[in-house]
Amino acid sequence: MAIKSVLASLISVVALFQASQAGLIKRVACPNSKHTATNAACCSWFNVLDDLQVNVLFSECGEASHSALRIVFHDAIGFSKTSNMGGGADGSIILFGDTELEFAANNGIDEIAGDLQTVADAHGKTYGDIIQFAGAVGVANCAGAPRLQFLAGRPNATAPAPDGTVPDPFQPVTTILARMADAGFSPAELVALLASHTMAAADKVDTTVPGTPFDSTADQFDTQVFIETQLRGISGFPGTGPHQGEVESPLAGEMRLQSDHNLARDPATACTWQSFANNHALMNSQFAAAMKKLTVLGQNTRHLIDCSEVIPVPKLTTVTPHFPAGKTNADIEQACATAAFPHLPTLPGPAVSIAPVPPGT
Question: Location of site Transition state stabilizer (predicted)?
């Protein structure tokens, strides 16, 4: 009993110490702002947040927020361990836009790059920082998303990234995995990063139908993309889409990238892909971890300041994992060899065409 009493006393002392330490953390009032921050160096980012939400992202999970997340990947993945080329998450896609925005893989990024350059210049921020900040804010605009880390203080890029560092959707899985491995990412981390496609849409794969979503709930950060890519293609088999990098989706109005289709079925990635289908928490945690790694590629994190408190807290999603109307487990093309695809409910009603993502306000 005496030992239990001593342990209880020690626990009480530790709790009191932690409480007293917490009380010592003072928030500072940010100048010319309604906000406070634990680190005064983060105050200016609240002004950037307001500017972004009003003039670029429109505080919605729409086309601009999708593009803000896309440019995060396209800028940061310009990094190679083996060739020692590319600065990673350094904003080179804006600073050296005359070069990088001409790369075929970066088609369609020029608009968000120009918008972010304007905001960065107005607030005296580097392009590497504005890209990563806008990406985190854009994700936060989507219900169900994790709240991503944001570190500030990246120096300006010194050179453009080399061409060929951004994987293309028409490339074989082995080529895509090799490129990601060269940047330091495992197959599982690549699949986690592709959770980004839950809020994505294509403008340039087929220019006649801009804003074509990759899943049926592009305004939510949910697991539907990992379910719907596993459905069999039209006529029971995956046909080749009419445009390079596209595979026919069995859902009207939805686009399936060839790379997503193949990664969902490849032995190296299929089980990770399937594991996210009905596990939103797992998808979010793995996506946040992979993004934490991606956003500091090529950077010395000891020189960066954690300003994650500026990132808005995302709303909860109201979507639960389901099959679209008319689809069931019988329509799944099983690919994971060690576990069966989870049983999910089917959305009631007749099958409907998925609406395109509208342009921003």
Answer: 70
As a whole number of angstroms, the distance between CA 266 and CA 249 comes to: 18
227-280 pLDDT per residue, tens? 999 999 754 333 344 455 567 788 999 999 999 999 999 999 999 999 999 999
Per annotation, catalytic residue among 35, 74, 280, 322: 74
For residue 343, indicate whether it is catalytic. no
For the chain, what are the domain ranges? 39-166+291-310, 173-280+318-331
Q: For residue 212, give the DSSP letter.
A: E
Residue 75 is labelled as binding a ligand: yes
Is residue 331 annotated as involved in ligand binding? no
Task: Name the pairing type of β-strands 212-213 and 246-247.
Answer: unpaired
- What pLDDT score was predicted for residue 243? 53
Query: What are residue 118's phi and psi, to 5 degrees?
Result: -60, -45
Q: Is residue 176 within 8 Å of 259, Cβ to Cβ?
A: yes
Nearest in space to 335 (alpha carbons), one of 249, 287, 263: 263
Question: Which class for 20: exposed (0-12), middle (13-18), buried (19 or more C-beta within 10 A)?
Answer: exposed
Q: What is the CATH number of domain 39-166+291-310?
A: 1.10.520.10
Q: Answer whether 245's CB lies under 8 Å from 205's CB.
A: yes
Instruction: Name the CATH topology of 173-280+318-331.
Output: Peroxidase; domain 2 (1.10.420)
Identify the pLDDT of residue 84: 81
Residue for token pair 């000891």: 302
Number of H helices, E strands in the chain: 13, 8
For 281-343, what is the HEC assignment?
HHHHHHHHHHHHHHCCCCCCHHHCEECHHHCCCCCCCCCCCCECCCCCHHHECCCCCCCCCCC
Ligand-binding annotation for 197, yes or no, is: yes
| DSSP run (H or E) holding 257 | strand 256-257
